[in-house]
Each structure stands twice: as C-alpha cells, then as structure tokens.
Design goal:
Helices cover 75% and strands 0% of the residues. It is an all-alpha fold and 59 residues long. It is flat, with a radius of gyration of 13 Å.
C-alpha cells in the first residue's frame, strides 16, 4: 500500500488499543477540551480525524 494507507492502518490499530486503556480523570478532562476544539477546526481533515477519534474515545 501507499504510505498514507499504511499510516491510516496504524492509526486505526492504535485507536482500537485505546478501548482497553484506562485514562486518569485529569487526562480525560484535557482530552475532552482538545477534542471539542478540534471538532470546530476549519480543516475538514482535522474534523474528520477528530470524529473518528471520538468514536473510539467514547468507549
């Protein structure tokens, strides 16, 4: 595959691992603030990545 496909596959696998990772509350607060600000980013790729991350983050 192309480098972008390889990176996308690696990112998806990393997201799947996050489902099993317990995060401390302080980290969760910071992550929520960052995710909310990224969801309004003018770059559509950033918004798409944020939404993809949120899907895994909600577990």
């Amino acid at each position: 595959g192309t480098p972008n496909e390889d990176l996308s596959c690696l990112a998806n696998e990393a997201f799947e691992l996050l489902i099993w990772h317990t995060m401390p509350q302080a980290c969760l607060k910071e992550a929520v603030v960052i995710l909310l600000s990224s969801s309004n980013n003018s770059n559509w790729r950033t918004r798409l990545s944020t939404l993809s991350y949120l899907r895994h983050f909600m577990y």
